[in-house]
Amino acid sequence: MQVTLQKSEIAKQSSVQITGSKSESNRLLLLQALYPEFKLKNVSNSDDSNLMTNALSSDSEVVDIHHAGTAMRFLTAYFSIQEGRETVLTGSKRMKERPIKILVEALQELGAQISYEENEGFPPIRIKGKKLVKNRVSLKANVSSQYISALLLIGSKLENGIELNLEGEITSIPYIKMTLSLLDEIGVESTFQNNTIIVKPITQSPKPKTLTVESDWSSASYYFSIAALSAVGTEITLAAYKQNSLQGDSVLVDIYKHFGVSTVFNKNTITLKKEKSNLEPLSLDLKNAPDIAQTIAVTCFALGIPCDLIGLHTLKIKETDRLVALKTEIEKLGGDVKITDKSLHLAASKDVKPMVSIATYNDHRMAMAFAPLALKTPIIIEDAMVVSKSYPTFWEDLKAIGFAVKA
To answer: Is 249 in the active site?
Structure first.
């Protein structure tokens, strides 16, 4: 299904309730499977979190997680320690092209029994769950923080815990710290010093408690973009957010000051306000928050601001090669983009071509990042329901604040 967004103007004041963070939800769902004492509130209603929930409750030998990359990584570790259970973990065509070898080799180093069903280094994989007694492992730190989090999440269930040595520069440190903070919240001890992370084994059952998932900052990014492209004085209130967030994408608060957007925290909400116009060039290193690169690039393009974004090496192994996808779609709109394997460089643009059809490449963030352009010109988004991967009510929420959305 495609949607057409006519040129829109949003209400001066509006509010949106955003679902729980996919990143937090998927970590907590795995921890809940390991420690059923916990209850969860405000879990993400995204496809990825629903797939994670279904996979964790499934007793089938074949578990298909479709496009859910986080689930693939976390479940690879989870099923490795399910003693006596044999699982084939598979996914979509794109998932079978996304590398898993670094994580598999780390688990094998710990004693896990994992083999490839089709192509070496890629899903589907066959996992024979067993007790893991080794506790020391090293892996490259600059590929995906999800490999690291997958190991940390099961660490407390290993007889001797886990000692993880990270080789090279660490990517997406906030996501690793999120994992460790959630472990701390359920009573698991850990340390993170230099490039070594230690998770201690848990010695007694955790006390029952209810954990509330904070709303998703990645999803909030599209409203930061909308605020940046709106008239001075426009306000958008989002719930539910906290100032001391575990999510790396909360750096949006600082980044969007560049576009004249201020953020006010009030209990469990944030209010975004367009204070002024600022068309100065932007240079950012997004190695700790790569998921907001698409949103920022489109914001800059819409405002005619040149930008240089670096630290984007993980974007090539996401739902699509996001760097190539961004270049292709922005240039269809009249932009000038240069990319390397880890950076994007956007020249200042004068106009945005109207009624361009944006391909989404099975990537939810492509659909949502380009939607705010409707504040400048009519635009068509192909395969629009791909947003259900992380934010199923996105189009309804846009309509509610004034966007002219036609399916």
So the answer is: no
